[in-house]
Amino acid sequence: MASTFTVHAASGYEQLMGRWSRRLAPLFVDFAGLAGGEKILDVGCGTGSLTFELAKSDGLTEIQAIDFSPVFVAAAKERNTDPRITFSQADATALPFADNGFDRALALLVLHFVPEAGKAVAEMRRVVRPGGVVAAVVWDHLGGMTGMRMMIDTVAALSESGRQLRSRYCFQPMMQPGEMKRAFVEQGLADVTEAELMIRMDYENFDDYWAPIAAGEGPLGKYMTTLDAAERTRVEAAIRDAYEAGRPDGPRSFANVSWACRGIVP
């Protein structure tokens, strides 16, 4: 499996998305549920937003966290001081764990970057005991991320390559209403429920919004690295204009909606 998410530095990811995944993690944990004495698997842990949120629950006995990126795994290990947590590099579509070994398998902002997302759901189901929970959450790129759509729509207006980026970005796996729920049902999970979770992304100014993308982080950053210097300058100016919207540079706040799904292993 390959991930479609581009990462150069953990610090860049933190500014791009880690700070917002930490804001989403408590809502997702409430949706997925927890119980005392459980063993939890965090699939696609990134820098540990969900892992460390889970660790706030004293009742958990073990938290295994995996990610495809060695950059993320190294950064998460460096932060960890909890003996219940183990970070390791692994593939979400081929989890290195025995059948029925966990009470819950959770994935925060991961499945839309897994080309074989259905296979990842199947693997999460495999490693969870009967009666246990599989849950995941992904951003709604098409209709629920106003700050990112502002940027995507701007580049789409400037060039054909921008239009192609928008098509890829808006229709990544598991993002459309009901799509993740159908995948959960197809993989044999029972009592599948879907919900919307919303946070706000608050930026101090345009540089706070733009810096990780300019550095090449994430799908939008990867696109920027394909442009020559003149086109990069033109794109940045247009996106700055969209961000400022005719007012002086400064704080901006954007609503961001995600799809969450939860199912029971029969």
From TrEMBL:
GO terms for biological process: methylation. Pfam families: Methyltransf_11 (PF08241). CDD domains: AdoMet_MTases. This is Class I SAM-dependent methyltransferase. InterPro entries: Methyltransf_11, SAM-dependent_MTases_sf. GO terms for molecular function: methyltransferase activity. Residues 41-135 form the Methyltransferase type domain.
